[in-house]
Design goal:
This protein has 299 residues and is of the alpha+beta class. Helices cover 43% and strands 11% of the residues. The chain binds a DNA duplex (15 and 15 nucleotides) through helix 6 and helix 11.
DNA sequence: GCGTCCAGGTCTACC
DNA sequence: GGTAGACCTGGACGC
């Protein structure tokens, strides 16, 4: 047994960039993640197999990542291992990107990607959390995505410290009504989609968590995601990226707009033309597209 | 402060 | 297979 506070570390791959990973997309801005300064630290709540949740603060060194664990009870060795494993999964530390980086080095406009250690996309501790948050990004502004996620955690999550709430378990959401979710979470017409997903998980009809380690073909995973009501072409494409599959672009209005600025002097083009543009990057096309449209975030 | 309009993906009905 | 319309909310804007 180890008494808190506890600091553990874990090795990072050569060239890894903590800020480029945390800033890879907007997840760091959605609870339970917190980050006053996303370039240097990230706070997260990590659920453990023992059904406990720990509050961690992540900061990066050049060869190791520092994990400060804030919680009150004793911490077993296997719980520390679980924390380390979840953090590695969230920051994609074990994802092999050598082939992608080699591709980037052959493209002058992508040479910055391996130089700045970009290409690892932050994900939540669970696939369920990633899917619900992606559902909350559909057909709304980022401010509404933040409102929905904040309400969901505050009203159905568990308070682990004053003002600090876990992402709720599917069963906690499954117990609520459609009308309650619309009223309290502000998720509008997405409420029945969220409810159906949570009840499917709660009843055992669907299990999202194995998708991260699945060896099934990408198109099979895509079909699985599209079978979830409310997850369309855009959301499925972006969830696939969080599963380490980059065959789909996940085009939304922002990608259309950025693509037009970067490649067409501001003139918008049909999605099919955007798809064709990235075809030559093969199974990395979705990641190349993401790097291009977010390049200025990493400048 | 109030009303109106718009933007944002997905689903369903219809052709 | 392609398309129109409905879904719901926050924010911008005009009054």
């Amino acid at each position: 047994m180890v008494r808190t506070p506890v600091t553990i570390t874990t090795a990072v791959p050569k060239g890894f960039s903590f800020p480029a990973t945390v800033n890879s997309h907007g997840w760091y801005d959605l609870p339970p993640f917190r980050s006053a300064e996303p370039y240097s630290e990230l706070h997260a709540l990590i659920p453990l197999p023992t059904r406990r949740t720990v509050d961690v603060r992540l900061t990066a060194g050049t060869v190791r990542l520092r994990i400060d664990i804030k919680q009150s009870g004793p911490l077993k060795k296997e719980e520390q291992d679980a924390i380390r494993s979840t953090v590695r999964s969230m920051l994609r530390l074990d994802e092999p990107l050598e082939e992608f980086y080699a591709l980037c080095r052959r493209e002058p406009h992508l040479r910055w990607v391996p130089k700045r250690g970009a290409g690892r996309i932050l994900r939540a501790p669970t696939v369920f959390e990633d899917v619900v948050k992606m559902l909350f990004t559909t057909n709304c502004s980022w401010s509404l995505t933040r409102i929905q996620t904040t309400h969901l955690t505050r009203k159905l999550g568990t308070e682990t410290a004053p003002g600090l709430f876990t992402f709720p378990h599917p069963s906690a959401i499954a117990r609520m009504s459609d009308a309650w979710l619309r009223r309290e979470i502000s998720c509008g017409y997405r409420a029945p989609y969220l409810l159906a997903l949570c009840r499917s998980i709660d009843s055992g009809r669907i299990d999202l968590e194995p998708l991260r380690s699945s060896e099934a073909p990408t198109e099979e995973l895509y079909r699985t995601l599209r079978s979830i009501k409310g997850i369309g072409h855009y959301a499925a494409g972006n969830i696939l990226k969080l599963l380490g599959r980059y065959d789909h672009l996940g085009i939304d209005s922002w990608v259309r707009s950025r693509f037009a600025e970067i490649h067409r002097n501001g003139r918008t083009v049909p999605d099919a033309a955007i798809e064709r543009h990235y075809d030559r990057y093969g199974r990395w096309r979705g990641l190349v597209c993401l790097m291009e449209v977010t390049a200025d975030w990493h400048a």
